[in-house]
From TrEMBL:
This is ABC transporter ATP-binding protein. It comes from the Bacteria. PANTHER family: ABC TRANSPORTER ATP-BINDING PROTEIN, TAURINE IMPORT ATP-BINDING PROTEIN-RELATED. One of its GO terms (molecular function) is ATP binding. It comes from Paenibacillus sophorae.
Amino acid sequence: MEELLSLRRLSFSFPQQKLVFSDLSLTVRQGEFVSIIGASGCGKSTLFKAIAGLLAEAQGEIALQGSARGENRLGQIAYMPQQDLLLPWRTVLDNCLLPLEIKGRAGKGGAATVWEMLERFGLAGYELAYPHELSGGMRQRAAFLRTLMTGGELMLLDEPFGALDAMTKRDMHRWLLELWGELGRTVMFITHDLEEAILLSDRIFLMPSGSVGPLQELNVGLPRPRRLEMNYELGFVSLRAELERRLYETRTV
Ligand SMILES: Nc1ncnc2c1ncn2[C@@H]1O[C@H](COP(=O)(O)OP(=O)(O)OP(=O)(O)O)[C@@H](O)[C@H]1O
């Protein structure tokens, strides 16, 4: 598989603050699903902002499709931040149309595309509803569709299911696994949920805490298509134990 994103020795600190992370290197291949896990505050969201091109001061190299120019990344990467940030005064349809509006492509064709996609996202009948009328899972699907509409091969999803109850989260996993198979996009995904990371990912990167140490990589290697029931299987359980062990080690360094 072709390399889509490459980070080389990436470091970042906020002005007059200690390092958030240092010397991080990784590559993500086209079409991969990669998760980032790590202790709270270790810099996962900051890493995503740097990759999206929002932190110009980051040191090191971030190359997308071989190009290391930051301005090339802005607008080429679809970034879904931790809060869904749906605009409360816009309908679901208009929220999801926003990225096309910004690009001047929200005409009749654009609205028809989004309308059609809303059905695939389980939001048929809610096109003209406002965000406060949706359940948590529906809001996340709407925010996800809006992110998708920004285009770009790489999607950065920052803990999209963190606030959902266990059952809704399972539904979202089933839905995302199916959708990801169809879309063929490359996804980077932040989560605190180890089972979620294993179920969805090809590889998992574990960020060090306290800004020291390298990224650790775990190859998931479970067959695809994945099924929710896999989390009872031995291979899955051993991966979970291994991940927990490594997470514990990085936290006690
Ligand atoms: N705008 C900012 N200015 C200064 N420090 C910041 C800013 N944003 C985040 N930080 C600090 O940078 C560190 C990393 O924050 P970040 O949100 O990236 O962590 P995280 O791993 O995503 O955390 P969580 O898992 O809790 O979401 C934290 O110590 C945080 O307090």
